[in-house]
Amino acid sequence: MSTEARQTAIHATGLRKAFGDKVVLDGIDLDVPRGTTFSLLGPNGAGKTTAVRILSTLIRADAGDVRVAGRDLAKDPDGVRRAIGVTGQYSAVDGLLTGRENLILMADLHRLGKTGGRRAADVLLERFDLVEAANKTAATYSGGMRRRLDIAMTLIGDPQIIFLDEPTTGLDPRSRRTMWEIIRELVKGGVTIFLTTQYLEEADHLADKIAVLDGGRLVAEGTADELKRLVPGGHVRLRFADLAALDVAARTLGVVTRDDEALALQVPSDGGVRSLRALLGRLEDASIEVDEFSVHTPDLDDVFLALTGQSKAPAGQTKTLTGHTENEKVTSR
Q: pTM to 2 decimals?
């Protein structure tokens, strides 16, 4: 196995799926590094769950080359299954069994043996703060507890990759934050997380890389900060000590929005390091002192609406973000 393959958890090229005349995935490419959180965003019906179902061997793709945990999805689906865990939109917990019994059932399915299975169950009950509820039926659990148990059951097989399909849907804010901490701990331990979510804040907080799916095609991908720079409206706010400095800065910078009462200027900017350096360099060259500055960029809500509600990438193209931080960061492929 090549070094690149060892470093890649999921690699897909030209992934396609249609149900009858409806094309759900239209030739998407994915590359997910190991030990990271990758988030797939998109409106309802965009194809997120279909992508998860294909990558987790639940349904077959119509076309495309896919490797998951270094294994060919089409040729070695059993090998893929041994390397992954799946937590779907709806909990797979058996409400008639206790928390411990649910975990032991999963251990038996993985053939861990009586002693090994019970040991693994106890470790996971402790890890997910379910010891006190271990002998209560799962039907009595809160939504957050059921979700924690669901992920604990997924971990019984010690998966390298976990697919989390909208794992916090319906959870209260406290339970959602708890789930975020669990996900971060899993990634710290070397697990790769493939996350789909309707909560853009969730992707912003958790994902190392985000891809936006719309109409079966990837329309953008990059880090959360890179995606935010795709949408116009970013700016730098500069505040000065007095009106004289404000006047000189306004003349020096040209296109600005001025607020005399606050002694502040609003300068259009993508928020990138290079553009910030250039802006501050112009002020320094003019010997203009800035009391404070702050960078404002659109949030993921703005990105989501812009990419899935208005503009469409031409067929076969994706807005791909490079490591640059200025306007040239967007290239077509």
A: 0.75
